[in-house]
C-alpha cells in the first residue's frame, strides 16, 4: 500500500498541534503553582491569582485547549477529505 503524502502532512500538522497544546497545558499547570507565592500578591476578582488559577483558570483553559483542538482538527479533517476526494476523482 502506497502512502499518500497528504497523510504525512496531516499527521505532521496533528503532531505539531498536539506538541504546542501540550506545552500550553504544561505552562498553565506548572507556572501558577511554581510561582504561587510570588503571584499571591496579585488579586483577581478578590482572590489571590494563584488560587484563582487553581480553582477556575486552569480548568477553564483546559476546556479551551480541548475545544480548540477539536475545532482545528475538524478543519484539518475536512481539508484532507477534500484533497483525497479531489485526487480520487482525478484518477478515475
Automatic annotation (TrEMBL):
Chloroplast: is it a keyword of this entry? no
Claim: Transmembrane is one of the keywords in the record: yes
One of the Pfam families matching this protein, by short name: DUF4212
UniProt keyword list: Membrane, Transmembrane, Transmembrane helix
Residues that span the membrane, as ranges: 16-37, 49-71
Record's InterPro entries?
Na_symporter_ssu
Domain Sodium symporter small subunit, which positions?
9-79
Q: Which domain of life is it from?
A: Bacteria
The protein in question is named: DUF4212 domain-containing protein
Originating species: Sheuella amnicola
Amino acid at each position: 500500500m502506497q502512502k499518500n503524502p497528504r497523510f504525512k502532512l496531516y499527521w505532521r500538522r496533528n503532531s505539531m498541534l498536539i506538541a504546542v497544546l501540550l506545552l500550553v497545558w504544561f505552562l498553565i499547570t506548572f507556572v501558577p503553582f511554581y510561582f504561587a507565592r510570588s503571584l499571591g500578591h496579585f488579586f483577581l476578582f478578590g482572590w489571590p491569582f494563584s488560587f484563582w488559577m487553581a480553582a477556575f483558570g486552569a480548568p477553564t483553559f483546559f476546556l479551551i485547549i480541548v475545544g480548540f483542538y477539536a475545532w482545528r482538527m475538524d478543519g484539518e479533517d475536512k481539508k484532507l477529505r477534500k484533497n483525497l476526494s479531489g485526487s480520487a476523482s482525478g484518477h478515475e
